[in-house]
């Protein structure tokens, strides 16, 4: 599977309807974004069970503002509709693989239950 362009109209439903969604916030003029793009595309091809979304921050300025994007590229990971990872910067392939492995292994229900107990 390749990456999917996400917009303000499709973002929430994509995050809610899929187990794991990774989102790359990027722009055409961004050099690090262009360097990260092929790494992200390869990961998308290697993990067809995960949705790999891309948000063009120039075309989707309101969505980028809502997500509080201050630096691009920024990678976000959602599991079962919950934000579980967010980090600016172009990741090398090995680091992206670590993020994917960690998000896949994360028991988000247990993490939410533990966080609720701490409150």
TrEMBL record:
The record marks 24 as: Deprotonates C-terminal active site Cys. GO terms for cellular component: cytosol. One of its GO terms (molecular function) is protein-disulfide reductase activity. It holds the Pfam family Thioredoxin. It comes from the Bacteria. Residues 1-105 form the Thioredoxin domain. The keyword Disulfide bond applies. InterPro entries: Thioredoxin (IPR005746), Thioredoxin-like_sf (IPR036249), Thioredoxin_CS (IPR017937), Thioredoxin_domain (IPR013766). Transmembrane segments: none annotated. NCBIfam families: thioredoxin (TIGR01068). Belongs to the thioredoxin family. This is Thioredoxin.
């Amino acid at each position: 599977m390749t990456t999917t362009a996400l917009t303000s109209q499709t973002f929430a439903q994509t995050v809610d309807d899929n187990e794991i969604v990774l989102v790359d916030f990027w722009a055409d003029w961004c050099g690090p974004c262009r360097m990260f793009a092929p790494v992200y595309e390869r990961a998308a091809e290697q993990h067809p069970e995960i949705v790999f979304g891309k948000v063009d921050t120039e075309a989707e300025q309101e969505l980028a503002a809502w997500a509080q994007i201050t630096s691009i590229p920024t990678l976000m990971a959602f599991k079962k509709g919950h934000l579980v990872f967010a980090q600016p910067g172009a990741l090398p392939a090995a680091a992206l693989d670590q993020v994917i492995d960690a998000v896949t292994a994360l028991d988000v229900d247990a993490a939410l239950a533990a966080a609720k107990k701490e409150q």
